[in-house]
Task: structure prediction
Amino acid sequence: MRRDNLRHLVVAVLVRDSSGRIYVHRRTETKDVFPGLHDCFAAGCLQAGEEVEEAARREVAEELGVVGAPLAPLFVMRYDDDATRHLCHAFVATYDGPISHQADEVAWGAWMTPDELRAHLADPTWPFVPDGRVLIERLLAIPEGPDRPDRPDRPDRPDRPDRPDRSDRPDGATGPTAPVRLDGPDGPDRG
Result:
């Protein structure tokens, strides 16, 4: 799959604490894809027969030791580059417990506020996984409130009532389009 860069199904879980900080980690140098780069998602491929949410729970438990945190779906997005092609189901988990790195996958990690993460992402010398960058930049840029342009319940969007779970955004994203608040202390605000 990876050798031939075949499209595959992945999950990605953003872990944040109740104060709104995001857990950011650096991948080990031995990872087969994007070694040594920073990321803010616990992510991976689905195993045969595995459901999407089950895979998300497995990945966040394996990579960061996060168990029992509620998962909220964010969106589904297609991603393609020279190293990977996938359809990603993104989730957020709010978690205030201890983080425990899987030594083979995570070399370092720390909590960052959304503004700290934005500053790091703006630094071209700070290496960050390209698919994770697309995901987090999309999340950090989502406007909030009733004026959000792709809100499915807006009366001026007649194309949305029959497609509440899809989007025709140019970034290829599909899935829930209700606002997700990452900056607030109360966790994801879906609407």
Notes: The longest strand covers residues 71-80. DSSP finds three helices and eight strands in the chain. The two ends are 37 Å apart (CA to CA). The CA atoms of residues 145 and 179 lie 7 Å apart.
